[in-house]
Specification:
The complex is a heterodimer of chains A (112) and B (117). Chain A is mostly beta strands and 112 residues long. Chain A is 0% helix and 54% strand. In chain A, strands 2, 4, 5, 6, 9, 10 and 11 form a 7-stranded mixed β-sheet that branches. Chain A is globular. In chain B, strand 8 and strand 9 form a beta hairpin. Chain B is mainly beta and 117 residues long. The chains are: A mainly beta (112), B mainly beta (117). The interface between A and B is medium-sized, with 24 and 22 residues.
């Protein structure tokens, strides 16, 4: 079974731009969560989607948003990029909301 | 609030020797604990988890972890380290949100394991 896939793998943007990251979960997995990884803050929860609905959100500003489609694929969007948004963005999927999360390779975003 | 701590930024061990990567937790209620490993330019790979039951949990690649309730610890162990085990290891706890039955993972700061030949 194919793992979690994330596209693109690398992105370079400038301040003020917006960006959309994509995540395709493992087949049959219905829950998708997003995490941000930075050297300073470590791994932090962004949000979780299940059945096309955002179920939980971490402590991030409203510039961070996301959505989930009927096939469980998910996208996250960051508007008005700031230098501090440079990070590795990880997507994780699980069959149901309570089960083990399996992570994708991440999208590395660099904001200049 | 739930939290985990990884007291060592880096652990160095010689190939063939046993390794231990430490993790302590602070939770209210029963802890759900996880270990993940991250190789360079890769995402996190699931190693093992403790939900309930036997205190010694066996996982992938020969790793195991020992849950100790009295010491609130969940240390990762391997009897014989390999150079290929060199990576970044994360301990995580499941944070159960009270409003519903979903959960998010709260991660420790990570421990870099370096296995020298």
């Amino acid at each position: 079974k194919a793992g979690v896939t994330q596209t693109p793998r690398y992105l370079i943007k400038t301040r003020g731009q917006q960006v959309t990251l994509s995540c395709s979960p493992i087949s049959g997995h219905r829950s998708v969560s997003w995490y941000q990884q930075t050297p300073g803050q470590g791994l932090q929860f962004l949000f979780e989607y299940f059945s096309e609905t955002q179920r939980n959100k971490g402590n991030f500003p409203g510039r961070f948003s996301g959505r989930q489609f009927s096939n469980s694929r998910s996208e996250m969007n960051v508007s008005t990029l700031e230098l501090g948004d440079s990070a590795l963005y990880l997507c994780a999927s699980s069959p149901t909301r309570q089960e083990t999360q399996y992570f994708g390779p991440g999208t590395r975003l660099l904001v200049l | 609030a739930q939290s985990v701590a990884q007291p060592e930024d880096q652990v160095n061990v010689a190939e063939g020797n046993p390794l231990t990567v430490k993790c302590t937790y602070s939770v209210s209620g029963n802890p759900y604990l996880f270990w993940y490993v991250q190789y360079p330019n890769r995402g996190l790979q699931f190693l093992l988890k403790y939900i309930t039951g036997d205190n010694l949990v066996k996982g992938s690649y020969g790793f195991e972890a020992e849950f100790n309730k009295s010491q609130t610890s969940f240390h990762l162990k391997k009897p014989s380290a390999l150079v290929s085990d060199s990576a970044l290891y994360f301990c995580a706890v499941r944070d159960r949100l009270m409003m519903d039955s979903s959960y998010k993972l709260i991660f420790g700061s990570g421990t870099r394991l370096l296995v020298r030949p």
